[in-house]
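Predict fold of NAD(P)H-binding protein; 296 aa.
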Amino acid sequence: MKILMTGATGYVGSATAKALLAAGHEVTAALRDASRTSALPAGAAHLVADLNEPKALADAAPGHDAVLHLGFPSHGADWFAAVEMERAALDHLADALTGTETRLIVTNGTIFLDPSNGPMDEDTPVLDDHPAAVRARSLMALRTRPGLACTEVRLASFVHGRGGSVFLPILMKHARETGEVPVVDDGAARLSALHVDDAAQAFLKLIAADNPAPLYHVAADDSPTARQLAEATAAATGASPKQVKPDEAAAALDPFTAMFLQTDNRLDSRRIRCELGWAPQADTTLIADVAFGSYR
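Predicted 3D structure, encoded as tokens:
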């Protein structure tokens, strides 16, 4: 199949691009500029297209079997401006793809869901006052758009493996520099986890599906506490866990990372397992990977 990707040089995106190529698919990566081609896996093609100016992306999209959106605009501190920029770019893509057989696959997290009833599935309501809910609503509008084949994939909050991730390097860097690992309040928040290679395989399963659902949650079976993650980080870095208040964690790390470390986020991923046959295959867990694996 012919796949057009955004975010193919990013953490999840690069793992997914490699997996797609290994499975025999053709991958074209949309890059902000041609200087980024060296970061692409061997065998991937590219085009210069930016979410800031999405016309080239929208023009190229209908010639592919699927468009996999794993990128996000650079935003500095202005999250809402980045979400609006992404929304406008995805609207261009949706206009180009509506009425075609090309599937648009978009990616999100689950931090904006209501955790009060245990593990969260695809029917769990969005917390309307959560700062990340604005992006949830934007992607929901896409997957409910008439005539558009669109699926949203919500990944676990702590994607790990190969020494990368969004939040783990921030936590590890702080631990090594200060000798302390923040534990927000009592550290009882349960975290969702997923190995990056398992994330990539979920996208492969989705691309191969004849009639996938419009929404899937993807997570491994482990859901450690934030304190367990802090203890694993301490084991890897020689630092010590330190109990802090939420505002202290935000100041020490950043507000976004601190939010993920204090939010209950257990996920139910039975839908993708039952419908698409996906299952986690990694031989490590988040805690083992941080304490003894790829982050040492």
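The CA atoms of residues 170 and 253 lie 7 Å apart.
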